[in-house]
Amino acid sequence: MKISRFEDLDCWKEARVLVKKVYNATENNRFGKDTRLARQIQAAAASSMANIAEGLIRRSDKEFIQFLFIAMSSTAEVRSHLYIALDRQYITRESFDDIYEQANKTGRLISSLIKYLRDSSSNATKKTK
Q: How many domains is the chain partitioned into structurally?
């Protein structure tokens, strides 16, 4: 894989969209007053974006995959926090569905990248044997 800028990765672009959606939702007055939950969901969304970037810079597929798993886990954390926000009526069902789908989409793209990296690493190992 010859990507040198994290900004070129589709999963990073989608994580960025996720961060925007989460921050927009937490600007809601009721949600914003629950500072602990708002900060947790913001941090989880930002973590997905940051770990993709940090992993790419490591220049090792093994380390990159490790960071991608953290990023993917952060998208699951966002989805979990969304249920709390919905149950507390901080967000509408429509907002929940929109952000949930964005987190899910981001997670799927990260998962696909992990699979690609593992497969290409496995193929490279087979060629050297």
A: 1
Query: Could you tell me the CATH number of the domain that includes residue 110?
Result: 1.20.1440.60
pLDDT in tens, the chain (129 residues): 577 899 999 999 999 999 999 999 999 889 999 999 999 999 999 999 999 999 999 878 999 999 999 999 999 999 999 999 999 999 999 999 999 999 999 999 999 999 999 998 776 655 555
**Is residue 37 assigned to a domain?**
yes
Tell me, what amino acid is at 62? K
Q: Write the CB contacts of 53 (distance below 8 Å, at least 6 apart in sequence).
A: 6, 12
Question: Whole-model pTM?
Answer: 0.91
Domain of residue 104: give its range.
16-121
